[in-house]
Fold:
Amino acid sequence: MKKTKMMKKNYEFKYALSKGKYYGGKYIEAFIKTKNKQPINILGIAISVKIAKAVKRNHIKRLIRESYRKQEETIKTGNQIVFLWKKKVDIKNATFQNINQDIKTIFDKAQIIEEKL
Structure:
């Protein structure tokens, strides 16, 4: 069951970036605002225009979205999550394995993974 909505409005991104806690990985940065008083997660992905052209930026977004989808069932609900691609990291390192491992590391640091019984 899908329990995630996408952020679309600028004020949603600003709120999550200002109030959320920063977690960094090798390729991705994340701002996670916990306890949004809703039974769903809200996901936002932002990649700077300076990083690459539209095709590459959209490819990275698809990789991040797919990696998140694979781990969606293990994440606690009620979070606002914004993923940003690090500007100093080369775009050639954007493989699914690298992004997936980075997101797992970020979720472990943030402690938003539910324990399985």
